[in-house]
Amino acid sequence: MTCTEILALLPDHLKGTALPETAKRHLASCSTCHQEFEDLERLWEGLGNLPQPDPGSALRSRVLAPRPRRWKFGWSPQRRSFCWWAAWAWACSSANLIQPPLIFQPGWFPPAPREPLVWSTALPLRSGSRGWP
Amino acid sequence: MGQGGDSGRGLDGTDAGRVSNGLAQLFDRYHRPLFGFFLRLTGQWHLSEDLVQEVFLRVFRYGRSFREGGRFKPWFYQIARRVYLDQVGPRIEEMGLDLDSLPTLLEDPVARVERDQNRQWLERTLASLPLEKRELLLLSRDPDLSYADLANLYGCSVGALKVRVHRALLDLRTAFLARSGGTP
């Protein structure tokens, strides 16, 4: 095996794959590859032994605090986005509540009965008159 | 933690109530490695806390996208990467790492007493690497994440990913030797 082929085995070896015998023989005879394997193995081990910092219990209570309702309208400190569909639904429902008094005013519904024909043929009032023809 | 133990116990993709209950278990199990991952990427304690919170919030919100029977950790770290790329990705290089305070941040008081010079150098050297190499080394060192998982995460072939890991390790060695002046 060549040095390039041996070094290509290194990532798998670091993840726990055993080296083939030919690779072991090469490492025993090639000081460059041997040194690289040794150095990178140590660094790999060192990376695995880095301490895991503890953020403390405050973060736990923060993360596991009761969630806001998913459809909550507007800005939410945890959601950090605007719920547009909820805002739209809210606007539509508000419009439906406001509109009925405007639409169904007295006289609009049911439609007022048409006045008798006799009144429609009456002479228009002259200006200045007292209401009599 | 072997492969069998990485099924994300407590996370059920179809039942929001069970996801909610499982969130506490998942938090207890994964928050420290995740916090360490973010802290080593950003170098900022409070920002890392916020990122951890956001990750678990997304786990809670998007638990349904987790395929039942799938492996939890690759899915989890996919969310984690998205969170920090969304929230600090563009600014991360501008913020920079405080190399002097990093080992102090990462050590608890007991460990600080018996700290190892090599470990300090390793922390600092790791922090001096470019972000993508730092991230790759931290993720590839996780025993629960295989190269196939990471290749899927980065959208490249397994062979290409191994080459990247190897190169990142060589860069780490070069920087380490320059810093310590000796062998790793």
Core attributes:
heterodimer, A: 133 residues, mainly alpha, 7 helices, elongated, B: 184 residues, Rna Polymerase Sigma Factor, Chain: A, Arc Repressor Mutant, subunit A, 2 domains, 10 helices, 69% helix, disordered N terminus
Write a structural description.
Chain A is an all-alpha fold and 133 residues long. Chain A contains 7 helices and no strands. The longest helix of chain A has 20 residues. The radius of gyration of chain A is 43 Å and the shape is elongated. Chain B is mainly alpha-helical. Chain B has 2 domains: 96 residues, RNA polymerase sigma factor, region 2, helix turn helix motif (Rna Polymerase Sigma Factor, Chain: A, Orthogonal Bundle); 69 residues, Winged helix-like DNA-binding domain superfamily/Winged helix DNA-binding domain (Arc Repressor Mutant, subunit A). In chain B, helix 7 packs across helix 10 and helix 9 crosses helix 10. The two termini of chain B are 27 Å apart. The chains are: A mainly alpha (133), B mainly alpha (184).
Multimeric organization? heterodimer
**Helices and strands of chain B: which structural class?**
mainly alpha
What order do the SSEs of chain B take from the amino end to the carboxyl end, as H and E?
Answer: HHHHHHHHHH
The total beta strand count of chain A reads 0
The CATH superfamily of the largest domain in chain B is identified as RNA polymerase sigma factor, region 2, helix turn helix motif
Largest beta-sheet details of chain A: none
Fraction of helical residues of chain A: 40-55%
- Provide the low-confidence segments of chain B as ranges: 1-5, 9-16
Strand content of chain B: under 5%
Quick one: biggest sheet of chain B? none
Average pLDDT score of chain B = 78
Structural class of chain A: mainly alpha
CATH architecture of the largest domain in chain B: Orthogonal Bundle
User: Total domains of chain B, how many?
Assistant: 2
**DSSP summary: helix tally of chain A:** 7
Instruction: Identify the CATH class of the largest domain in chain B.
Output: Mainly Alpha
Number of helices of chain B: 10
The H/E string of chain A reads: HHHHHHH
Number of strands of chain B: 0
